[in-house]
DNA sequence: CAACATAGTTTCATAATGCAACCACTGGAG
DNA sequence: CTCCAGTGGTTGCATTATGAAACTATGTTG
């Protein structure tokens, strides 16, 4: 077997995320879905991607519980793809990707849009990582701990 | 031309990020680099990936300014791959991916590690998005604004 | 029902991935 | 200096994924 390696059984949560949304198109589809796109044709024309690839990606994300098929919305007999809570939960990942470009892109003048606070119209701050008690954490303030073994039964 | 579509000229900063690190392996390589790995063989054996693929990815990330080639470190004549500031800036993206798995993964019992506050050993909070004035923002509190045209010269 | 739009699937060519084998250079041992 | 294992790749070939275009099956409109 020479299949593309799967991270499905991997214990690393980053690898597990990539398994679901780590391809070229999924995150862009989710970005458009967060903007309100729902129909196959909308995704296809907005993203300009091949229909067969779109078809595969949509099905995969439905299987992963990121999108769900909804029966209608405008009364027609067609279906729509709507984000589940898991799908909407991708939002911080998109913000992180966006901010990385905004900060480090070599051609920032090519970036078309900036994410702003709707109330003030001012750019949002960089994502912050905080401790339970509210302290702002830097990468060096964190570490990885083995997940505590959850007893499988018995209360 | 039937090449894989490139997002290089795209105005969307998310697409531009994906252009650089949106493939199956780059983010995992950066994750290991953040843990201190530097040598070709270290990445190869830790990630278990094919050497030719690793070679291509490392070169690509060097070209993108994410990694830099450093002449040594232990005195040997070999080279090392070290993260640039741009590379270390990927950290929030990895945290976001990790937290997405921690929150939504269908088999959370398979997740091996959790990210904790080093001082207290307690899990870190979810990444927070704040306005310039410190208000906590939800996705609905934000919007996209066209990037202000930067005058090209003259002061 | 004719004509058109939507939402795909199929076909075929090309590009990316993965494994294994091969090769160049390094660093020591003798 | 020579031999030889280890490091850091590259090359070749098979398989899989991607992409463009053509085709199909419904739905929808006049």
Fold topology:
The structure is a homodimer of 155-residue chains.
Chain A: H1 13-21, H2 26-34, H3 40-47, H4 51-63, E1 67-70, E2 80-83, H5 85-88, H6 91-104, E3 113-117, E4 142-146
Antiparallel strand pairs in A: 1-2
Chain A binds a DNA duplex (30 and 30 nucleotides) through helix 3 and helix 4.
Describe the protein in words.
2 copies of one chain form a homodimer. By secondary structure, chain A is α+β, with helices and mostly antiparallel strands. Chain A has 2 domains: 13-84, Winged helix-like DNA-binding domain superfamily/Winged helix DNA-binding domain (Arc Repressor Mutant, subunit A); 91-131, no CATH class. The first copy, chain A, has 6 helices and 4 strands. Chain A has a two-stranded antiparallel ribbon. Chains A and B meet through helix 1, helix 2, helix 5, helix 6 and strand 3 of A and helix 1, helix 2, helix 5, helix 6 and strand 3 of B. The structure holds a DNA duplex (30 and 30 nucleotides).
């Amino acid at each position: 077997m020479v299949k593309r390696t799967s991270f499905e059984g991997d214990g690393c949560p980053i690898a597990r995320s990539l398994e679901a949304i780590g391809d070229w198109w999924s995150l862009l589809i989710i970005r458009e879905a967060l903007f309100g796109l729902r129909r196959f044709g909308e995704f296809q024309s907005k993203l300009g991607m091949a229909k067969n690839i779109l078809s595969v990606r949509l099905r995969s994300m439905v299987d992963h519980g990121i999108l769900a098929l909804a029966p209608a919305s405008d009364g027609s007999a067609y279906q729509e793809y709507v984000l589940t809570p898991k799908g909407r939960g991708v939002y911080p990942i998109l913000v992180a990707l966006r901010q990385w470009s905004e900060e480090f892109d070599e051609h920032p003048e090519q970036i078309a849009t900036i994410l702003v606070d709707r109330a003030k119209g001012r750019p949002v701050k960089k994502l912050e990582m905080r401790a339970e008690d509210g302290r702002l954490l830097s990468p060096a303030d964190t570490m990885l701990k083995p997940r505590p073994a959850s007893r499988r039964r018995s209360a």
